[in-house]
């Protein structure tokens, strides 16, 4: 598994700044969202509680409320400005709750969630054991986890262009589908199914892509990133390298999207520990014993 680490405060700051501009640039996010919602067809029950982790500006939360009108829908996001913007999508007829929290520390009771939905958020979390362990904790047995995330080929053209300029990380790195799948199994999630899709968006010039990334808040949050300003000469070398990749007079940008779903395990189902062994957990109330007299 990749050893990269993300700067959580930088992630929160980037998305907070992008709250007002996000929906001007979220064409891909909407496309992926539509495909992710189709995975919810696998859940045939009537949910009582649905959570949208990494809800952003709340478009997905509103769609979930439309789909599950009688359910309690909760939008969760790390960036408070995003949740403030999300209020515009929460109507008085179909309102949803907004909570500022981290995906690895959800303020929800154990086994209290029927459907956990997350669209293009998990790539900003480098603690996969903590992330999927928390999903298992809050999901009811048989509850559905459905999410999308970016794979390592995302923005490969921009990464290659920067490599022509210097050896510093300028583009966030993302985990392979197999790493994600292994983490899901290790956490105890049942019957995970993962698929990979590749989208290619094109732009008139590289700067348009960079403007879009900034507008989305999807800029580099790698802890190993260079902290100073990028020199003009290096920036120009990157632009020149990217210009050389033009196809039919357009600049391409690849987005590798991993879409997945899995099911909450029965209470007490063993999960893999860090040492390779298996760990089972039970509520103390579920234990029955005899007392010596």
Automatic annotation (TrEMBL):
Keywords, comma-separated and alphabetical: Biotin biosynthesis, Methyltransferase, S-adenosyl-L-methionine, Transferase
Pfam families to which the protein is assigned, alphabetical: Methyltransf_11
CDD domains: AdoMet_MTases
Catalytic reactions on record: malonyl-[ACP] + S-adenosyl-L-methionine = malonyl-[ACP] methyl ester + S-adenosyl-L-homocysteine
Boundaries of every Methyltransferase type domain copy: 51-147
Matching Gene3D superfamilies: Vaccinia Virus protein VP39 (3.40.50.150)
Pathway participation: Cofactor biosynthesis; biotin biosynthesis
Stretches the record annotates as Disordered: 264-293
Any GO BP: methylation
GO molecular function annotations of the record: malonyl-CoA methyltransferase activity
EC code(s) of this entry: 2.1.1.197
Keyword Iron part of the UniProt annotation: no
Family per record: Belongs to the methyltransferase superfamily.
Stated role: Converts the free carboxyl group of a malonyl-thioester to its methyl ester by transfer of a methyl group from S-adenosyl-L-methionine (SAM). It allows to synthesize pimeloyl-ACP via the fatty acid synthetic pathway.
Name of the protein described by the UniProt record: Malonyl-[acyl-carrier protein] O-methyltransferase
